[in-house]
Structure formats: C-alpha cells, structure tokens
Design goal:
Blueprint lengths: L6 E4 L2 E4 L4 H4 L9 E6 L2 E6 L13 H5 L17 H4 L2
Antiparallel strand pairs: 1-2, 3-4
Length: about 90
C-alpha cells in the first residue's frame, strides 16, 4: 500500500499524523509502545513486542529494602519543619 502524508510542526518537533488505514492496518493505538528504526532512507515504525513480565525493575521491593536501617537511609538528615512552615 502506498499512502502520501505530510510532516507538520508540533511544538518544537515534527509530527506525522497517523489516521485512517495508517493507524488501523498496523493496529496502532494511543499510548502504544513502538520500535522506531531510523536509517538514511527514512523510518520504520512497528508495534513493540510485549514483554513477558510487566515488572519494570528486576528487583522486588523486599530486595531493595533488604538491610536498610535508619542510619543507611540517612533518616538523621531529614529536614525538620518549623512551626511556621508546618502551619501549626
């Protein structure tokens, strides 16, 4: 399929609006992650493959907090609000 589009200014960026079959055939949706390949001839945009795990961090909360103490968390460095700042 060959479709002609127009690159427009969008803020300080350039944008190509995907409408009609440009959006529907590859099943693009708003907020969808895509992979963009760029070369001297242009760009290719493809839907990103879904990851097997929805977790962003490879560590669990328990692993991140393991061994944390008030000293290692620098709890002594927390700011103390004055009565005026706290509104009391």
């Amino acid at each position: 399929m060959h479709i002609q589009g127009k690159i427009l200014k969008w803020g300080n960026s350039l944008a190509l609006r995907l409408s009609g079959s440009l959006r529907d055939i590859p099943h693009f949706q708003a907020n969808m992650l895509v992979n963009i390949d760029v070369n001297e001839n242009g760009i290719t945009v493809q839907p990103a493959k879904k990851s097997k795990s929805p977790r962003i961090s490879p560590f669990s909360e328990a692993q991140l907090l393991k061994g944390l103490t008030p000293h290692t968390a620098h709890a002594d460095a927390l700011a103390k609000l004055s009565k005026k700042e706290s509104g009391y």
